[in-house]
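Quarterly update from the structural biology core.
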Amino acid sequence: MTNRLERDSLITDNSIFGDKPLIKIDNTNLSIIKLLREGRKSYSVMAEELSLTENTVRSRVNKLISENVLHISGLIDPSALSGHQIIIVALKLDTVELKEKAVELSKLKGVVSASITNGRYDCFLYVLLSDEQGFGLPQFLDDELSRVDRIKDFETFVVYKSVNLKIPYNI
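Predicted structure, tokenized:
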């Protein structure tokens, strides 16, 4: 039988990559994170909705930020910007150092995220392109991806329609 704390907690494990050990996130923290999805909701409004004090909400948000669990940032809907598009690049790598390679790939111009995966591909990249800024698919492949060694093979997927995709603007 589990106690209430165990039952009401979510554990995330990034330790398999040498990251921080397990971080327990209770339902109150999850509720705060969900309310922050709206971005500009004040601590006082969140406190009222969650029946907490404003100081409790502020303290929990600050703790989540300091633990790198929560990041508050402005996100865009790439389909709302003319001349911009998202591509997904699936990569097969010729190395077992996947985390290091994902970090390297994440620093390329236009890369929104790099994810290590299992299955046919080792890593997926979400990449923001802008023809208006002269940074399209050829520029990403020729000027950015070609500089990275240990890529065995890759495949690109052009996202022509997305639902609920919000990303940071990083070009």
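The longest strand covers residues 84-93.
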